Amino acid sequence: MPARRLDGVACATRIREALAPRIGAFTTRHGRPPGLGVVLAGQNPASEVYVRNKIKTVGAAQCRGELFRLDASASLDDALGLVQRLNADDTIDGILVQSPLPEGMGADAEQRVFDAIDPAKDVDGFHPYNVGLLVQKRPALVACTPLGCIELLEQEQIPLRGKHAVVIGRSDLVGKPMAMLLLHENATVTICHSRTKDLASVTQNADILVAAIGRAGFVRGEHIGEGATVIDVGINNVSDKEFARELFAKDDIEKRFAAIDKRGFTLVGDVNPKEAMERAANFTPVPGGVGLLTVAMLMKNTVKAAKMRRGISNAAAI
Amino acid sequence: MPARRLDGVACATRIREALAPRIGAFTTRHGRPPGLGVVLAGQNPASEVYVRNKIKTVGAAQCRGELFRLDASASLDDALGLVQRLNADDTIDGILVQSPLPEGMGADAEQRVFDAIDPAKDVDGFHPYNVGLLVQKRPALVACTPLGCIELLEQEQIPLRGKHAVVIGRSDLVGKPMAMLLLHENATVTICHSRTKDLASVTQNADILVAAIGRAGFVRGEHIGEGATVIDVGINNVSDKEFARELFAKDDIEKRFAAIDKRGFTLVGDVNPKEAMERAANFTPVPGGVGLLTVAMLMKNTVKAAKMRRGISNAAAI
Q: What was the ipTM of the complex prediction?
């Protein structure tokens, strides 16, 4: 029996629907909607798409999303100054600085700019103070993508308590916060990475397998235990048709070839979807899986930040 | 072949010897030694012993250890005020608040007092800011016990890269920072806890097994894979001779019985030492294993904090 597809689109819709009355109540009470400030420096085309998508989604949910641009030639001090201004702006509840920053700002620019964001407005959950609060299982702003994965698992009623969860990848963005969230849900958690020996022997034992490594179709059938739930966090471009044939099942391949012909590429996660569908019990498709949840959780974090900043007591539970 | 005993006493000695010239150089340069302020509230007898031991060890290493006492009837505000005073005192480089605080200070007193410590002086590594920096693999003050375990593994030249490390216990004090440090050493890391199902099946795969749960002799032979290195973080009192007979080998039992007769108890870790000696390749005894390393690392953290506060560039590497 092929795996059940976990529907990220439906999950994101439910998140938005649950947020709508809270956003309305906040706006009525405070005379303005929750506000997200997005900083975009330079003209990276992929960043333009991400940022536009984030602001559009936030706006569609009756929040305020505002773009703050910096020239590609802007200095690190310009970026830090803008962040300080947004920190001080009471109508801005959440601040997101789009990566990457222009190279001219220096090698450690991102860390310095992320560190400068007021932790109370750090809707990406990148600030070490928020990371520490997460580890200590205290109210915190937590990275959106792992938060979205947990939300999806909960909505799909996939039990985590006592289960063995294996995370492939140890990034600050996904792998490490994902491991912490799974631990807080009482899963036994293993973190694998590029130095892990005999990866398949570890991942085969996973009830929940999360792939977050950024390598197209890297996780194969041999890595997946029978009956596992596979969460595919990766979003990669594939333009080679021979490779696509390895990745996609017969009922999917024509559509993928059409995408390659038209746009030059098709999207695939870090998991080989053809093999995952054969082995797993549950699987998140790409696109249509985790991707949309990241933006939905960004909105949820913005509302949470807006409430926490005003000391609304149930904000942490939102 | 019985396990090799990993010698915590020798390791702690080497740590102190390596620190001595650095402490001397700091004192010459700044006209005063690195300073540790220890806050003790109330008269908990165990705390008195711990604190005396810490201050004595620090003093013996030519650092300054100073005790700051609060009455058992002191308020939370008294404790917070004292921490603020130590934060502002330039001759104090590290601040340690001994747990537990008196019950009268309230249920969340410890968290509030720990949070009040300047992260730059947080030699216990409990502040969320330091926890976040640790997760992000940035220079940080890190909890002393897991730091000591890593130091012991390094000194004993037990490889971690690519090895499977399993941590039993997920406390903020040991389990979680231990997992992060092992991950940074490129181990594949699994965190087990009270909700883990079929614990032995997970721990048997460990090349490195760290027990930090606080239950006397909980880890048995069946939990230990052949050739594993077992790090026993627990320190528990055993007063029952029948139980002692299960825990200690023949060549050890008379000494243990004598201790029970004399003091009313003998010390055992979270691992059954008799069975660990039969199964493991390397094993940390209790006492004489990890225990002494915690205080040695406290001293190392104090020197590190003293140097970091002055922006001495190689302080993070100390």
A: 0.96
